[in-house]
Specification:
single chain, alpha+beta, six-stranded antiparallel beta sheet, 10 helices, elongated
Length: 415
C-alpha cells in the first residue's frame, strides 16, 4: 500500500474520523434486517485506527483519493498491486482535473456537480488519467463518497487496465483473423487463376471419400460435365467399369510406384480413352490425389480426322447447317444455308436470331430450343423458311443440343 498525504493535516486520521462518525455518537434507529435486528447504527460502528484505515481502503479499491469540495487532492492511497507513474506524489494539493485527460474533465465535472447536489450516481464514472498531456494508460472507474462534515469526498477507484488489455488483445486477434481471411482469399484467387490458366485437364480427388474436390474447366469439358456438377461427385462414376475402391487403389499404387505411371480409363460420356497421371500428397490431415487427364494419342488422331471430316461436311454438304448459341443467335452457317436464304455473305446472318428466318419466328425457335435441350435432339420439325428476298419454303429441321461445348449451343440441319 502506498499513501500520499497532505502535509497540512493527517488525512488518514481525518478520514478515519469521518468514516467512523467522529467517534461513538448516540445510537439512531437504522434499517431492519429480515431477522429484526438493527445494524449499522452510528454507535455500533467501531472506531478504526488510522494505521488500519489505509489497509481497509486499499482492500476495497485499487486507488482512493480524498478531495475537498473544490476538487483539490488531499491524499492518495493505492493497493500494493496498483502501480502509479513516477511523480504521482506531486498530485497532492493539485486540482483533480489536472491529472485527467481532456475528454475526461467534463465527465468528472458533471459527476461532481451531481454529487454535490445530492443526486444519486447510479453508475461509476470512468476517467482516464494523464500527466502533462501524456496518456498514462490506466482508465479507472470511480465512485463518490462523503467522508465528513467538512465537505471532503472520497473517490474509490477500480483499475480498468486488465479489461482494457483484454479488449486490446481481442481487437488484435480480430485483426489477425481478418488478415488471415484476406490472405486465404488471395491464395484462393491465385489457385483459381493457376487452375484455369493451366492447359492440362486437372482434377483433385479425396482419397478417403473418392470424391472430386476441385477441377478446372478443361477437365470438366473432357469428361463431358459442367464444372459445378463435377465438384463433389464420385470420381469413379465418370468412367465405365470402374468402382470407387478399385479406382482409388489403382491410383494409389500408380502414385507410389517408381517413375511415371498412368492408368487408362474410358469416360462415361463421350466414350473417350483417357490416361490418368496421379500424384499423392497430404493436406489438412486428408490424403489428396492430383490427377492429370490426358486424351489417348491414338484417339487424339482419330478425333483430329473426325474434325477434318466434319469440317468438310459443313463446307461442302448439300444440307444447310447453322450453329447458334444458347439463345438461338447464329454463330456460323455454311454455304448451303446462304443459298437457302438467298444471303450474299455469312456476315449478313451472324449475330441474328435463327427465328428471324422461320415462318412463326420466335415460336418455332422456342419449340426447337426447348425440346432439343430437354431430349438432346429433335428430328424433322416442319415449318417454312423465309429468305431475304425469296418466298417462304417448306423445310424440315433437325436440331441437336451441344452440351459438351465450352459454351453450350445448338446445331441445326435444314432440308
Amino acid at each position: 500500500m502506498r499513501s500520499y498525504k497532505n502535509n497540512s493535516q493527517d488525512s488518514d486520521t481525518a478520514a478515519a474520523a469521518r468514516l467512523t462518525g467522529e467517534g461513538r455518537a448516540s445510537k439512531q434507529s437504522g434499517p431492519m434486517t429480515p431477522r429484526g435486528t438493527k445494524y449499522w447504527d452510528t454507535g455500533s460502528i467501531p472506531l478504526i485506527a488510522p494505521e488500519m484505515l489505509g489497509d481497509i481502503i486499499a482492500a476495497l479499491a485499487d486507488i482512493a483519493i480524498v478531495i475537498d469540495e473544490h476538487a483539490t487532492i488531499a491524499s492518495i492511497i493505492t493497493s500494493p498491486d496498483f502501480g502509479l507513474p513516477e511523480g504521482s506524489d506531486s498530485w497532492i494539493d493539485r486540482p483533480f482535473t489536472s491529472i485527467l485527460r481532456v475528454e475526461s474533465i467534463p465527465k468528472f465535472e458533471r459527476a461532481m456537480s451531481a454529487f454535490l447536489n445530492e443526486e444519486t450516481l447510479t453508475n461509476p464514472v470512468q476517467l482516464n488519467h494523464a500527466e502533462n498531456d501524456v496518456d498514462l494508460s490506466f482508465p479507472v472507474n470511480y465512485t463518490f463518497h462523503k467522508v465528513g462534515p467538512d465537505g471532503s469526498i472520497l473517490l474509490l477507484g477500480r483499475d480498468l487496465r486488465p479489461i482494457s488489455e483484454m479488449q486490446q488483445q481481442l481487437v488484435k486477434a480480430q485483426i489477425a483473423l481478418e488478415q488471415d481471411y484476406e490472405q486465404q482469399r488471395e491464395y484462393d484467387t491465385r489457385f483459381r487463376v493457376l487452375m484455369e490458366s493451366n492447359r492440362d485437364p486437372v482434377v483433385f480427388v479425396s482419397l478417403s471419400s473418392g470424391r472430386i474436390t476441385e477441377a478446372n474447366n478443361i477437365a470438366a469439358r473432357l469428361l463431358g460435365r459442367e464444372r459445378n456438377d463435377l465438384i463433389g461427385a464420385p470420381f469413379a462414376q465418370e468412367f465405365d467399369g470402374r468402382r470407387k475402391s478399385e479406382l482409388m487403389d489403382a491410383l494409389s499404387a500408380s502414385a507410389l510406384s517408381e517413375g511415371p505411371s498412368t492408368i487408362s480409363v474410358q469416360s462415361r460420356k463421350g466414350r473417350k480413352t483417357i490416361r490418368l497421371s496421379p500424384t499423392l500428397f497430404r493436406a489438412a490431415g486428408d490424403r489428396i490425389m492430383l490427377c492429370r487427364l490426358e486424351l489417348n494419342e491414338g484417339e487424339g488422331a482419330s478425333t483430329s480426322q473426325l474434325t477434318e471430316g466434319l469440317m468438310g461436311l459443313f463446307d461442302q454438304g448439300a444440307d444447310a447447317i447453322a450453329f447458334t448459341d444458347g439463345q438461338g443467335e447464329i454463330l456460323s452457317v455454311n454455304d448451303a444455308f446462304l443459298e437457302l436464304t438467298d444471303t450474299a455473305h455469312s456476315l449478313n446472318v451472324k449475330g441474328r436470331s435463327l427465328g428471324d428466318y422461320l415462318q412463326r419466328g420466335q415460336v418455332d425457335l422456342k419449340v426447337l430450343l426447348e425440346n432439343a435441350a430437354r431430349v438432346g435432339h429433335i428430328r424433322l420439325y416442319s415449318t417454312k423458311l423465309s429468305g431475304e428476298f425469296s418466298a417462304p419454303r417448306m423445310v424440315e429441321i433437325s436440331a441437336t443440343y451441344l452440351s459438351d461445348a465450352e459454351n453450350p449451343g445448338y446445331a441445326f440441319i435444314l432440308r
